[in-house]
Amino acid sequence: MTHPVATPEIETLEDRLRAIGAERYHDKHPFHHMLHAGECNPDQVRAWVINRWAYQAAIPMKDAAFMSRCGPDMRRNWRSRIEDHDGGVEEGGGIRRWLKLAEAVGLDPDYVASGRGVLPATQFAVDAYVRYVRDMPLLQAVASSLTELFAPSIHERRIEGMLKHYDFANATSMSYFKKRLSEAPKDVKFGLAWVLEHADSAEKEDMACEALIFKTNVLWAQLDALWGAYVEPGRVPPGAWKPGEGML
C-alpha cells in the first residue's frame, strides 16, 4: 500500500488530515450538490434516506465494537457517541430523529428501520466500516472517525438547502442534522487530540491518514451507489428499494 506523502505546504499531521477532507469528503459528491440545491425528486430523496439509514444504524454498533477493545478512560470519553445515537428509551437519539425524517418524506419508519431495500453496495460499505473499526489498530480506528472534522459544514448547508427547497423540511424533520452541529465538534475534539498525541512517528502519521482516506471512501461509495441506482435510471439492483415501496 502506498502511503500519503507530506508536501512542503502540508507540514503537520493535522494539516494532512484536513487536506484529505478538502479533497475527498463527500460534500464534493454530485449527489449532495443535487440534494442541497433542491434538484432531487421525491423518490431520490427517499432513496437517500433509506440508504443513509444503514450507515446511521451502524454507527453505535461500530462504536460499541470499538469500546470493547478499550480501557476505562477511553470508554468514558467514547460512550457519549452511542448515547447520542441511541438516546434514552423515552426520548431516543439520532437514530430516532432519522426516522422522523423518513416519516416526513413519506416513508414508513418501520420499513426504513428494517433495512429492507438498502442497496448492496451501501451495505457492503457500511459493513466494511464496522469491520475496520473493530479489527484495525486503535490509532486507525479513531482516525477513521475524523470525517467529523468536516461534518458541521455539510450539515449547515443541508439544513439551509432543504429548508429552502423541500416542503417536507421543518424543525422536526431536520432535527438530526441540527443536533449534530453540537455533537460532532465535541466528538472530534477528543478524537483529533487523541490521534495527534498517539501518531508519534512518521509511520503512524501515515496510518492515521490512510484511515481517514478509507473512511472518506466509505462515504463516497454510498453516494456512488445512490447515483448509479436512482439518478441514472434503470440500474436499481434486485432487492433494493423501488419507488412506491415502504410508503406510509
Compact overview of the structure:
The chain is built from 11 helices and no strands. The protein is an all-alpha fold. It has a single domain, classed as Heme oxygenase-like (Heme Oxygenase, Chain A, Up-down Bundle).
Written description of the protein model:
- Pfam families: TENA_THI-4 (PF03070).
- InterPro entries: Haem_Oase-like_multi-hlx (IPR016084), PqqC (IPR011845), PqqC-like (IPR039068), Thiaminase-2/PQQC (IPR004305).
- It comes from Phaeobacter gallaeciensis.
- With 248 residues, the protein is an all-alpha fold.
- The chain is globular and about 50 Å long.
- The model has no long low-confidence stretch (mean pLDDT 94).
- The chain has a single domain (13-231), classed as Up-down Bundle (Heme Oxygenase, Chain A).
- Helices cover 68% and strands 0% of the residues.
- It has eleven helices and no strands.
- Helix 9 packs antiparallel against helix 10.
- The chain starts with 12 loop residues before the first helix and ends in a 17-residue tail after the last helix.
- The longest helix has 30 residues, at 202-231.
- The protein has helices spanning 13-24, 30-36, 42-67, 72-86, 94-104, 109-114, 120-135, 138-143, 151-165, 175-198, 202-231.
CATH homologous superfamily assignment? Heme oxygenase-like
Number of strands: 0
Q: Helicity range of the residues?
A: 55-70%
Proper CATH architecture: Up-down Bundle
> How would you sum up the global shape?
globular
For the largest beta-sheet, the strand count, sense and barrel status come to: none
- Name of the CATH class: Mainly Alpha
Mean pLDDT: 94
Keywords: Oxidoreductase, PQQ biosynthesis
Pfam families: TENA_THI-4 (PF03070)
Organism: Phaeobacter gallaeciensis
Function: Ring cyclization and eight-electron oxidation of 3a-(2-amino-2-carboxyethyl)-4,5-dioxo-4,5,6,7,8,9-hexahydroquinoline-7,9-dicarboxylic-acid to PQQ.
